[in-house]
Design goal:
single chain
Length: 115
């Protein structure tokens, strides 16, 4: 026979977890004050589907944050709103873009028009 969730205990733990949420104290301090073990605290939080971290908890403190690692890029902003971004790790492409920009600048300086 499977053991169901004790509704009275579940109600008690919901109230207890709400107090913890409102108190804004560390879990260890709260459990000591309530006279409950931390393993019980975490087990009931999980049982009641409240395993998400406290909303008031500052980012980076026990919470994984999504991180995007950006490859360094070189950006060239051209007349007419054209922008060229080239990965700084792609040396060949970077050289091609810089050479083209230098050639374009030389043509413009000599009086020729460019697109």
């Amino acid at each position: 026979m499977s053991r169901g969730l004790d509704l009275a205990k579940a109600a008690l733990w919901r109230e207890r977890l709400a107090r913890w949420e409102a108190a804004g104290v560390k879990t260890a301090e709260f459990c000591l004050a309530e006279g409950v073990s931390r393993p019980s605290f975490y087990a009931w939080r999980r049982k009641l589907g409240l395993s998400m971290p406290r909303s008031a908890q500052p980012a980076g403190r026990g919470v994984f944050q999504q991180v995007f690692v950006a490859t360094p890029t070189v950006s060239a902003h051209l007349p007419g709103g054209v922008r060229i971004d080239v990965s700084a790790h792609d040396e060949q492409s970077l050289r091609m873009v810089v050479d083209a920009l230098v050639r374009s600048t030389r043509r413009t300086d000599s009086g020729a028009t460019t697109c």
